[in-house]
Design brief:
The complex is a heterodimer of chains A (373) and B (164). Chain A is mostly helical. Chain A folds into 2 domains: 77-140, no CATH class; 144-369, no CATH class. Chain A is built from 10 helices and 8 strands. In chain A, strands 4-3-8 form a 3-stranded antiparallel sheet, with no helix packed on it. The longest helix of chain A has 45 residues, at 279-323. Chain A starts with a helix and ends with a helix. With 164 residues, chain B is an all-alpha fold. Helices cover 93% and strands 0% of the residues of chain B. Chain B has helices at 8-143, 148-163. The termini of chain B are far apart. The chains are: A mainly alpha (373), B mainly alpha (164).
């Protein structure tokens, strides 16, 4: 957090720049926003469930605010690979072409309602969903992908400059950014990797450090409600799945004979649990898969739950606000206090989840490479 | 349901970018950082160890110094004692020597005095004999053939002088 505060000036500059670019686009959409203003009279009632899920899920545009009926959002590139006869091939365009789901572009449509909500679908001439089209490969730079790339760019910038600082200040006390990072690096090395893995820890340290900082930075950025934060990165199942997959692959590739022996023929287990029904081996093999699966779900569920609770408190303001404006203002005080508390808790969770994911990965590596004794 | 359905695009981008970032960070960040941290830790440990060693050495040197000083002090005492003894011996020797020498000088002086005395006596004797002869001559001149008893008396006189 402190780290973020230190660099919030840079982030602020980036945000301002992006706002300037979005302003142009916001002007462009004003034409159709007048159109939608006509329908604004029958404004939908506030649905907290949709509101929360929309914020937690991925999106094809980075919505920042709605101001006087104009959506202020950052359009994101859409990259599609279609296998249907009509639209065969690669399609790259900006998500602004969809006009928030109101327009069809190039035979594609962004659904805002129904079972395909938030997804890009192929449409036929009549403008209806082409159900017969083969699965559309959507490689768009969505909100989460952009956040992912931002986090990675941020990480590269931090650690390459820290690395440079180390090379420049050889055998000297750490300074600046370097001294922010060194305790965390040493924490991962001495409190996660070394006790869990043993003397071979150095081989796994680059991976452990990468996931630790990736999860930690992503979690912290997720707590910032406005761009470049706000995307639910570590609360996205695809992200946690790839992280867990990496841990699983590294564990399996580096596993020694002792590890496999424990799975197939666990020592110290009565023979009748193995023959004729291989009960223990089956349980052990399930265990091999459940370990990364649990890693994936734990991180996803913790971060998503944090976002849902914080958003839930904010939803209260609008729910009461619909009843009467006074109640809305009144409850907002309570909501802000609760959200403050939740955010404080989430700061802790941001670190704990990064720690737990890294620690468990390290323990799995340790188990897979443990020598027989 | 969408919440727990991983999107293909996200999987693709995550896989690609995570792999790239992992490789880049491993090569250009983690390896040098970890190596430098380790190097620095080793350096600090070595420095502390050598400081400890230097301290020990200092203590040893100090005790050595003390020992040397003590030894030197002892040696000095011995030397001083010896010197005192030598001094005393020299003094006593000198005293003895001086006594002997003084004795010798006194002896010399005595013998010299004796010699001188003898010479003086001889001289006086000669003088006396000369005077006696003169006196005798005078007496003889006056009464040489006169009195034989007088001559006898003179001879006895000379004899008396000679005895002295």
């Amino acid at each position: 957090m402190i780290l973020l505060l230190k660099y919030c000036r840079n982030i602020f500059l980036v945000t301002v720049l992006l706002f300037l670019t979005t302003k142009i686009w916001a002007n462009e959409t004003e034409v159709d926003s007048t159109k939608s203003e006509a329908g604004a009279s029958h404004e939908k009632a506030f649905k907290p469930g949709d509101f929360i899920i929309d914020h937690v899920l991925d999106n094809h545009e980075w919505h920042i605010a709605k101001f006087n009926g104009t959506h202020i959002s950052i359009p994101l590139p859409v990259i599609l690979y279609s296998r249907s006869e009509k639209n065969q091939g690669l399609h790259v365009f900006m998500s602004s072409k969809f006009h928030h789901g109101e327009a069809v572009y190039d035979g594609f449509k962004l659904e805002i309602e129904g079972p395909h909500k938030g997804k890009i679908v192929e449409v036929n001439e009549a403008g209806e969903i082409d159900e017969t089209a083969p699965y559309l490969i959507d490689l768009s730079i969505t909100k989460v992908v952009l956040e992912l790339l931002l986090v990675f760019a941020f990480m590269l910038w931090i650690f390459l400059s820290v690395s440079k600082a180390y090379r420049k200040r050889r055998d000297k006390a750490p300074k600046g950014l370097q001294s922010w990072m060194e305790p965390l690096i040493i924490f991962v090395r001495d409190d996660i990797a070394r006790p869990s893995i043993g003397h071979k820890y150095e081989k796994y340290l680059p991976y452990l450090l990468t996931i630790f900082f990736f999860i930690f930075i992503s979690n912290l950025l997720g707590l910032i409600p406005i761009f470049p934060g706000g995307a639910n990165l570590t609360g996205n199942i695809a992200i946690t799945m790839i992280l867990a997959l990496f841990t699983f692959v590294i564990t399996t590739v580096n596993a020694n004979a002792n590890y496999w022996k424990h799975i197939i023929n666990a020592p110290g287990v009565p023979w009748w649990l193995k023959i004729p029904i291989p009960l223990m081996p089956v349980v052990e093999i399930i265990g091999v898969v459940t370990k990364p699966f649990v890693l994936m779900v734990r991180l996803f569920a913790n971060i998503t739950a944090g976002h849902i609770i914080a958003l839930g408190f904010f939803s209260l303001i609008f729910i009461f606000g619909e009843m009467s404006p006074g109640a809305g203002y009144g409850i907002s005080i309570l909501s802000v206090i609760f959200t403050l508390f939740m955010t404080m808790l989430e700061l802790l969770v941001a670190f704990i989840q990064a720690y737990v994911f890294t620690l468990l990965s390290a323990i799995y590596f340790g188990l897979a490479t443990e020598e027989h004794h | 349901m969408e919440l727990v359905t991983p999107g293909i695009g996200l999987i693709f981008w995550m896989l690609l970018s995570f792999t790239l970032v992992l490789i880049i960070l491993k090569k250009y960040a983690w390896k040098p950082i970890l190596q430098m941290i380790k190097e620095r830790e080793d350096n600090i440990e070595n420095a502390l160890k050598s400081a400890e060693k230097a301290k020990e050495e200092m203590a040893k040197l100090q005790s050595d110094n003390e020992k040397i000083i003590n030894e030197a002090r002892k040696e000095r005492d011995i030397v001083l004692k010896e010197a005192r003894e030598i001094k005393d011996k020299i003094i006593s020797d000198a005293k003895v020597q001086a006594g002997v020498e003084a004795g010798k000088i006194v002896e010399n002086a005595k013998s010299l005095i004796q010699g001188e005395k003898m010479a003086a006596l001889t001289d006086i004797k000669n003088q006396i004999s000369f005077l006696s002869v003169e006196i005798a001559e005078k007496i003889l001149k006056k009464e040489l053939s006169k009195d034989a008893s007088q001559k006898e008396y003179i001879e006895s006189l000379i004899k008396d002088i000679n005895l002295n």
